[in-house]
Design brief:
Radius of gyration: 34 Å
Shape: elongated
Strand order of the largest sheet: 11-15-12-16-10-9-18-8-19
Number of strands: 19
Strand content: 5-15%
Largest sheet: 9 strands, mixed
Amino acid sequence: MTEFLLGLRLLFGAGRGNRTRFFLMAVGGSIGVCCLALVLTIPAILHAHDGRAAARQPVSASKGPADGTLVVQRSDAYGSRPFTRVFIARGTEGTRSAPPGLTRLPGPGEVFVSPRLHDLLRAAPAVKGLLPGREKGTIAGAGLAHPDELYAYIGTTRARIAHEGRTLKGFGYDYAPSPAVEPSTLTDVRFALATLVLLPLGIFLTVCARLSAASRMRRLAALRLLGLSVKGTQRVNAAETVMAAVLGALLGLGEYWVLNQVMSRTGLPALRWYPDDGALSATTVAVCLIGCPALAWFVGRKSAREAATNPLAVRRTALPRPPSKWGGLLLIAGMGIVSGFCVSGVLGHPASSVGVNGLLVVGGVVLTGAGLVLTLPLISYVLARRVAGSTESLTLSLAMRRNEAEPGSTMRVVTGLVLLVYAASLAQGVLIQMEQATRPDGPLQDYSLSLSALTPGQQRELGDVAGVRAHAILMNSWVDLDSMSPKDALASSATALIATCAQLDHMVERSKGCVDGKVMRLVDPNSSLGSELKPGASFRFRLSGSKAGHLDIGLPTRQVVYSASSVSTVGGAVLLVPPSALPAHARPRDAEFVLTSSSEPGQVRKVLDDIGAIAPIAEVELVGLNVQGLEQISVVETLLGLGMIMGLVIGVAAFLVSVTDRAVERRAQVTAVTLIGARARTMRAVQCLQVVLPLGFGLALAVVTGKLAESSYLITGGGAIRWDVAGVPLLSVAVAGVVAAAAAGSLPLAGRRIDPELIRRD
């Protein structure tokens, strides 16, 4: 306790500069604690989302009381957002309990809507067609997964839903039918966030705990020489770091509380929550208030060990020992694991993530990241020593000799940015893997709408939607089921695609033999559809707006050979009919209007939103994709984007703190070199090279190791994409930007004011 009190007296009695450094340590730690609290709270936000979604889920049975309450649930899409409607017909028997968010069940003709749907009804009155009845109130937050949800309870009569209604037994499931993020994907997201945020965060908190380390070590060495014990010297140093960590943790929790209040009201793209969802839990508070001071205590004891055990070397500023080579073993082990999985992909026998391989992938990624961090001082030392021994440039020699003398400071300066680049590759891999799992394996996405639900004007507007590559009509032939057997009816039916050759080319991957103005047979070599049909077979298609009322088309011998993705709407058609073959003003009766766009998730969301604006009450079928999957992609992209932003903030903060602290610590050396004749331009170049060379080498290594780790994750994931070549240019541009920003940020830190007194100061 005596040593702890001595540390506090030294802290507040060692001058303004020491107190300023203490508060800088606390503020820097608060930024890290705020980010840590946000990462720890994200799973709780998603759990609260799923908990409310599960609590309102209708529990029903096919059989029940004769006059029981009936329920029918409809989950559609409005644009790119899910739109859920629950139709309830109250009965005199059975449950009368209200769902969460309502005080009673709606009566016939009554509609209760979510606040966001209430606003939408004012902006788009056509949506009222989906909600038969009058609005009686809004659903409280307890009945909504998130504030932006489109949800409605609609009261109706038993007669209207008797044929498909189920008897309502109550509300509440043990699980959410459509979780915000699937559990398997959430595991990947947690892993990515830990790599993006927690690893750089640990480095940043370590950096904050070691501000002005050289000055403090000299002061601790003086105390040791005056007779203080080894453990007592370590306790004196720990007093300052622990107090700064405790103050920083309290400030960080307060910053998070403010951030949660602001972000929960403004929201993030595709992710909204209520303030109570993001409230600090006891576990999060304990981790921040106990874990961060414990880390500071560990760092403080370790950093004071040299001053306590060898104080004369510290006072005389002896050269430190070369960095340990043990960190390189971790890097080699991690690289060996991820490289092994990459080799399995190259040989055409990709390893699966089932069983032990799943643990090996995670272990390889973690070992590679940890080894990358621990190997940076050694890399900086070897690089500096070799360059300084071979160069004839005074500027380069000064810069490298400084890095050779203090290789540990390099890790504190560049590690945060290097880890950020390494983690960015993993984040790209998670997004690629999820997109492959939730969208069709192909470059195109089809949208199908019932033609009868569209007016001619809406049909024209939909064809002009930005991002739509082509539009066409799929019409089904009419068969008289009363006059033939089901087998004969199946052989006499066909689906025709009404499109031009140009439209067909944009809807499939490739086609050959198409001639405009001719009815032609569609043939996919990879499909047996229509193979039993003989040329000359006639099919009747019913029309509206035509005197004849129908159109008879015979199966021709001329063929169009095409190749389409496995979920393309064209794959169900056997005839290509030119638009000119239809009579004027005629519209097929049993038909669908089909749009085709790129399958890129952002483009799909934009097209869906435009469709919702033009035809709000039309039901849109996403061929091979569901809106919930699209929404999950948006949530994951938001979470990973948030992680990237936090990682960037932490990395930049660690860089700025480290570079500034190192510049202050080296003022005496800079002054000495300047007094013997070095120019200010030379000193600025030296300061820049000290940062840029190890940073550039570390970032290059991070790109290589990150891409190998990402590829091992993609290969074991079993997706079609195993090598993310498309992400390399973006990552390279980011690396170049980081190096340029680091160089620009290092230039002003050499200083212009020369104070010879610094040489004599302790």
